[in-house]
Amino acid sequence: MIVRIITIFPSFFASCLGEGLLGKAAERGVVEVQFDDLRGHANDAHHTVDDAPYGGGPGMVMKVDVWDRAIAAARQAAPGARVVLLTPQGDRFDDAAAVRLARESGLVLCCGRYEGVDERVAEHLVDECLSIGDYVLTGGEAAALVVLDAVARKLPGVVGRAESVETDTFTAGLKFPQYTRPPTYRGWDTPAALRSGDHARIAAWRQAEARRRTAHRRPDLAPLAAAKNVRLVLLERAMDEAIRDPQSAIAACATRAVDAYRLARLVVCVPDADTRQVLRNAHLYDVRIVASLAQLLARAKHETVIHLADQPGPGQLPLAEIKRIIAAAPAGITLTWGGVAPTGAHVAAPALPDLADHPLALAAWLDRLFGV
Ligand code: 6GU
């Protein structure tokens, strides 16, 4: 990936790019970082890049024509690259944005300075504006470095084990705590579970700690973390309608919900073999197609199964209880909808009792469970 940084302070980046993972990534050619000094695009003897703001006020504003020339040169040097202006006025840069930008063939990071950049740069010249958080930096350089680091570690071959990236904080809520030798230091112990050598116990401890921590420190991320282990299974009745009409509200609602709440997967149960084949050939949904729920669960012994009920009935649990069950589940969670409750499943009371089996009821459930 080519990353071109347009800045009035190219030397700001020198030491960071020689060190650590970023340095290695550059060495191996996974990222090629280019610098362009914005002053080189000024058209006067003083290399002026800024001017007083229209309407008055303190400070200076970076000039649109200078940025125009610099960005045009960047687009020529890195064709197809995504051009980003770093500004506290931008959209929030987060882990999902890092994943998205890592798919680009190139990035142009435009570092704003002073009180701001002429608005026409944001409006007409760049592809998007990003901010790294709710605070004001003296310039976009530190932000560009943050973006470059976060994007680079999503590229294959930058972080040693792909697993480290998958278990990153934020992809799955906050991370579990880590310890290394000695086992006890000044009376501070390493948790016994981690020294047990029992892999299942270790995994369970880590998952529980990660969830507890996320819920406590970052409740805003908790639903996202919870949703990661959840697959949504549409049972026969839901599929009947979806098969009859692939544009049905059910199919659309389910596929979009899986994306929106970042559930692990959408699975559909289709008992009829011919219909299964038709669905597979049609590539209608980005889903797993199985003959029955039993087949799906046969390979997931520790799965917690929760059925979202269509009709009010005995033994159903309220939302708060279902949330607790999801938070405490030792392994993955299978949510079923659109049919008869599987034996042994926890049954959640209908989200919208009056709408019974309407797709809106499914949407309401998912939003209450996993909406932020
Ligand atoms: Cl991208 N630039 C500046 N100057 N300040 C910021 C920022 C960017 N993100 C947060 N604060």
Report on the structure:
The chain has 372 residues and is α/β, with parallel strands linked by helices. It has 3 domains: 2-152, Alpha/beta knot, CATH 3.40.1280.10; 174-218, tRNA(m1g37)methyltransferase, domain 2 (Trp Operon Repressor, Chain A, Orthogonal Bundle), CATH 1.10.1270; 226-370, 3-Layer(aba) Sandwich (Alpha/beta knot). Helices cover 39% and strands 19% of the residues. The protein has helices at residues 14-18, 20-27, 64-77, 95-102, 119-125, 140-152, 162-166, 199-217, 222-227, 236-244, 249-260, 273-282, 293-298, 319-328, 359-370; strands at residues 2-7, 32-37, 50-51, 61-62, 82-92, 106-111, 116-117, 128-131, 184-185, 188-189, 230-234, 265-269, 288-290, 304-308, 333-337, 346-348. The strands form 4 sheets. The protein has a 6-stranded parallel β-sheet. It has a 5-stranded parallel β-sheet with strand order 2-1-6-5-8, with helices on both faces. Strand 9 (184-185) and strand 10 (188-189) form a beta hairpin. Helix 3 (64-77) packs parallel to helix 5, helix 4 (95-102) packs across helix 6 (140-152) and helix 11 runs parallel beside helix 15. It starts with a strand and ends with a helix. 6-chloroguanine binds at residues 86-88, 90, 130-133, 135-137, 139-140, 143. 6-chloroguanine binds next to strand 5, strand 8 and helix 6.
